[in-house]
Amino acid sequence: QVQLVESGGGLVQAGGSLRLSCAASGSIFVQNPMGWYRQVPGKQREMVALISMRGSTNYADAVKGRSIIFRDNAKNTVYLQMNSLKPEDTAVYYCNAAPNRGPLVWGQGTQVTVSS
User: Fold this and answer.
1) Which residues on neighbouring strands pair with residue 110, listed in sequence order?
2) DSSP secondary structure letter of residue 100
3) Quick one: pLDDT at residue 40?
4) How far, in whole angstroms, is CA 31 from its chain's centroid?
5) What are the residue ranges in the chain where pLDDT is below 70?
6) 10 to 20, 57, 61, 86: CA distances (angstroms)
7) How are beta strands 46-51 and 57-59 bridged, if at all?
8) pLDDT of amino acid 22
9) How does DSSP classify residue 21?
């Protein structure tokens, strides 16, 4: 049933980098529109980065210039490379997919914690 599995989160010092991975399976393929979102307790989930079916990308202002979303179709995995991390990047990061039909699919989330 689980179709998106995130990994790659962890503890990192400010200024460091992480690469988050989202492995898709089942009927989900990363050629679909994909996105990375993040959520802090008590706040709404916010978009971090999107990649369209065509490969165009969109980034939240907060991560623009520091992050890149890309995919490896052969591995059916979408990535979020995050550089120059800041404490305010601390959140649970979720991968999502927009299938050809039906509702959005979300992963379980992976924790990113950036220390000062």
Assistant:
1) 93
2) S
3) 97
4) 15
5) 1
6) 10, 25, 23, 13
7) antiparallel
8) 98
9) E
At 87, which amino acid appears? P
| Structure-block tokens of residue 113 | 């914690």
User: For residue 80, which of 46, 106, 50 has the smallest C-alpha distance?
Assistant: 50
Residue range 53-71, pLDDT digits in tens: 999 999 999 999 999 999 9
Distance (Å) of CA 28 to CA 10, 12, 54, 97, 100: 25, 30, 16, 7, 9
Q: What's the per-residue H, E or C state across 29-64? A: CCCCCEEEEEECCCCCCEEEEEECCCCCEEECCCCC
Q: What six digits make up the tokens of 54? A: 């065509």
Q: Is the four-CA dihedral 94, 49, 46, 104 of positive or negative sign?
A: negative
> What distance, in Å, lies between the first and last C-alpha atoms of the chain?
38
8 A C-beta contact, residue 84 and residue 29: no
Within 10 A of 36 (CB to CB), how many other CB atoms are there? 26
- At 116, list the tokens: 């000062």
